[in-house]
Amino acid sequence: MARATRFGGPPAPSTLTKSTNNSMPSTNRQSPNPQSFGKRNFVEQLRTSSPLSPCVHIFFMDGVGLGSDDPEVNPFVTADMPNLTNLLGEEWYLQGNGRIHTPRASLIPTDATLGVPGRPQSATGQAAILTGQNVPQLIGEHYGPKPNTAVADIIRQGTIFSDVAAAGQNAALLTPYPQGYFDAVNRGKRLYSAVPLAAVSAGLPLMNAADLRNGRAVSPGFTGQGWHDFLGFTDIPILTLPEAGERIASLAADYHFSFFEHWPSDRAGHRGLLDAAARHLEMIDAALGGLLNAWTDETGLLLITSDHGNIEEKDHRRHTANPVPTILVGKRHAELAAQISSLTDIALVVRKFLRLEA
User: Fold this and answer.
1) Measuring CA to CA, which residue among 287, 312, 261 is closest to residue 62?
2) Which alpha helices (H) appear in 170-304, and where do they start and end?
3) What are the beta bridge partners of residue 326?
4) N or C terminus: which one in the chain shows less Cβ crowding within 10 Å?
5) Could you tell me which residues are beta bridge partners of residue 207?
6) Does residue 15 or residue 143 have the better pLDDT?
7) What is the mean predicted confidence (pLDDT) over 96-103?
C-alpha cells in the first residue's frame, strides 16, 4: 500500500448515494454486516439477501495485460492463481489464447490501444472505459496518469456513473480516500484521477476513512493494512483477502452500478520485480476468490478489466500495448462478451445490461 500522496480522491466527505450533503449512506436495504454474526455465515447471508436487479460491478485492476508464456518475463506463469484458473481454465492469462468461454464466465482480450500509436495510459484508458468514447483518438494521444483538461472535459460530459444517476438508479465508487487527500485537492495541490473525477462529476461523494472503518468501503489494497502502516489509521478493521472480496460483493449488491479501483497492480508493474509481481497477482486472485464465491450470477454482472498492460511484462518497467483481460461473470456473460472487443465497448455493455440505452 502506498503513502497518502498515492491515493486519488475528491474534495468532499462521502456517502454511498448521490448527495450534496454530508449525511450517512442511504440505500434501499441494509447491507449484510460481517461484524454482527459469524464469518462462516457471511457468504450465506450474501447469497440469501436480495441484491438490486439488475446490478453491475466493475472490478478494475490498473495495468494488467495478457502476455507471453515466458516465465522469465510474465509473472502470471509462475503465480498461483487457483480462483481465476478454476473460473477460466489453465493459462487463461496468455495473449495467444483468444476468447475464452466457460459455463460461468467469458474472457475477452480487449484492445487498449484504440488505434492510437504509443503506449496506452491510465487517464485516457480509464476514461474510455467509463465513457464508451475513444478518448485517445479524440485528444490525439494516450495520456496519463491523471487527466489533462481535454480528458477531464470528456469525463464531465458523461460516464456510466452519470448515466446511472440520471436514470434514477444508484451508483458508488467503493474505494475510500484519506482526509489528507481531500485536503490536498481542496488546496489545489492534487488532481483527480479519472475514476474519482467521473464519480464526483456525477454528483457522487466519494468514500472516506469513516466509510472504510464502518464497512461501507474496501481499501484499494484489499485488507486495510496500508491504512495502519502508512496513514496512521490504527482503528481500521483488517480483513483477509477473501473477506475483502466478500465485502465488495456485499456492497455491490446495494447498487445498480458500483466500481472498485485496485491501482496497486500498476505500481507493482512499474517496480519491475518479477517475483513481487507474481505475489501481487496471487493477492488479487485471493480477493477475487471471495468476490466470486459471494457473487450472485442470476441478477448481477461482474466485470473485471484493466486500462492497459504493464504487470505482465517484467523485462521493463513501462506500460505495454498488449490487450487487457475483460472477464464477465453472470447469467448473460457469453451474450454480452460477444459485444466487447475494445475498452470503448465496456460502457455500452454496462448500459445495455442496466437498460440505460436511449
Assistant:
1) 261
2) 179-186, 194-201, 209-213, 225-229, 241-252, 264-271, 274-294
3) 108
4) C
5) 176
6) 143
7) 98
